[in-house]
Amino acid sequence: MKLRHLSIICVAILLTACLAPKTVFVTQEVTREVEVTRVVVQKETVVAKAEATYTPLPTYTPYPSSTPFPTSTNTPTSTPTTGPTPTNTVTPTSTPTETPTPGPTRPPVTPTPVNTPTPAMARIKDRDPGPPLTIIVSANRAGENSTYKVTGILRNDTADTYEAIGMDATFFDDQNFRHGPLDVDVPFLLLGPGEECPFSVELAARRVQSFLLHPNGRATGRRSAPVQVRNLSLFYGTDSMRVTGTVVNTNEYKCKNVAVVGVLVDTSGHIVSLGSVYVLEEDILPNGTVQFDVRIPRVPFYQYRIYAQAERDWE
After folding, report:
1. φ and ψ at 180, to 5 degrees?
2. Which of 97, 169, 210, 261 suits a disulfide with 307, CB 3.0-4.6 Å?
3. What are the extents of the domains in the chain?
């Protein structure tokens, strides 16, 4: 009996000794294998990242150079010429046109009168001796608010040059009351042989019936210099017409003191308005130029004319 119990105890001890320790060791080995496996996986992952093949960026290709657009050429268009627009009057039948500057020996061509107005006053003959200058009356008319106006041309038909040129005007009413003498606007400083200058004078009075004109001037050794007018431009304002341009010294000598006169002419060829400007500049060389800007009081008109003159510079 004791032997039997001893055998059972031995078997139990053997079973305990064999089975229990072996289970513990297997578990530990499995655990280590799992850990090793995880470590290997992490190392492979790191290696894979380190040994990844580098893909270079694509080679830079420069943009094609820009081709400039061709320069556009504006198609020329004709600019319509607009004539003056008179206020409260019948529109002129023709656009004002540029007329050449009159030469020193040739008077401007006067258009054929279309409708010559009746003179508002009678002209009295001048019996007072004076310089032999010719006065040509273009028109004498009565305006609004009892105004009277006389315009025309002062011309030198002699062989001498005259300085201090001018004119006196005297008006008489229906009671023979005298108004004047008044100074007449004669813009030129000199009048050489064959030269001429426009003039204009205006009076505000009642019932004027007649007028008398008397020229002034004296012979001089000074000499006028013909010049040319170029590059004219017109600007129409409400109260005036502005003319700008260039005066050219076409002589072989120097000149100075340029005078420019602009007049407006109606359909009957009469001067109806006058404006002038002086360019007091010396030593204008041959082919030299000066700019001018003249304003003419605006009234209904058909065309305009420009007169220009200079004085010879002897220095």
Report:
1. 125, -170
2. 261
3. 119-222, 225-315
Length of the chain (residues): 315
CA atoms within 13 A on the CB side of 114: 11
User: Three-state SS for 149?
Assistant: strand
CA distance linking residue 48 with residue 41, whole number of Å: 10
* Strands lying side by side in the sheet with 289-297: 228-236, 240-248, 289-297
Judge contact between 245 and 296, C-beta under 8 A.
Answer: no
Cβ contact 281:252 at 8 Å = no
Q: Which CATH architecture has domain 225-315?
A: Sandwich (2.60)
Helix segments in the chain, DSSP class H = 2-50
List the beta bridge partners of residue 154.
135, 197
pLDDT in tens, 104-160: 334 344 444 445 678 999 999 999 888 999 999 999 999 888 999 999 999 999 999
Backbone torsions φ then ψ of 146, nearest 5 degrees: 55, 50
CA distance 192 to 219: 10
Q: How many CB atoms lie within 10 A of CB 150?
A: 26
Q: How far apart are CA 184 and CA 214, in angstroms?
A: 10
Other C-beta atoms closer than 10 Å to the C-beta of 163 total 16
Could you tell me which of 184, 129, 191, 187 has the C-alpha nearest to residue 163? Answer: 191
Could you report how far apart the first and last alpha carbons of the chain are, in Å? 171
Q: What is the C-alpha to C-alpha distance for residues 67 and 48, in angstroms, rounded to an integer?
A: 50
119-222: what CATH class?
mainly beta
Lowest mean pLDDT among 12-16, 159-163, 176-180, 299-303: 12-16
184: nearest Cα among 209, 161, 146, 212: 212
This prediction's pTM: 0.63
